[in-house]
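Field reference: sequence -> structure
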Amino acid sequence: MTDVVLPDNFTLNFDKAITVVNWKIQNFKFGKNCTIDLFRGEPSPAGINGSNAQGQPSYGEEGFAGGRGGDGPPGKNGITLNLSIFDYPKTGSLWIRTDGAPGGKGGNGGSGGLGGGWHCGGRENISKDGGRGGRGGAGGNGGRGGDTARVVIHVKAAPGTLIRNENCGSPSLNPPKLWHPDHKSMVIGWRRSVRPPNTYGNEGTIVIWGVRGPGWIGGDGGRGGMGGDGPSTHQHYCGFLLRDVYGGDDGPDGNPGNVGQAGNCSKVEIRQE
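Structure field:
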């Protein structure tokens, strides 16, 4: 049991390694526009990239496919808060911010391999065109967003309507695309929750609200491999009575991964004694 005082415009953050906070407060005082932030971190790291195809197949055969990218890891859920208040404040305003974190980007697919080379008939008198390049690996799916924080508040003195659960909002993607910090790829933009308009007063109000963590974008599909002895317009003369052969077509690029799902709205309980 402890006493807690938060001054005006104060934000309380927890170490990102913490997943659950159990807090019993005898005398709780907070000033105007205070915040308890239960967010646990930025987007998760990206999934593992798929492996590039190695080696070349036999004459005329299709190149080996690139490896699929790994799925992005899920975003972190908001910190669970179990808060017991024995002496409820008469002034101030407090926002309990419950945002979930974004999932990780899907890994990129690996590049397809070189197609097998062309082959003039020989003893079997069968000529073969160059093989098509290998298909690029599919991108991994984006990671699922984290859930909003679960919050349970026990209050000794019933505060009436002064504790408000505003549930949670959908992820805010603004703008639709931004440059990734590596300056080489585009990613979905993401913005954290904005302070609700009813948390600026001085009546002892507590508002519980945040946004679900967004699912992140999937990885890019890998590049298709080059056709064997390509391009396909490359003609090779095989000699008398043997048909001419051509280089192989390039392989198709892999499909990009899907965007991950957004996190869920976790349950909020307000228990008055």
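Note: DSSP finds no helices and 14 strands in the chain.
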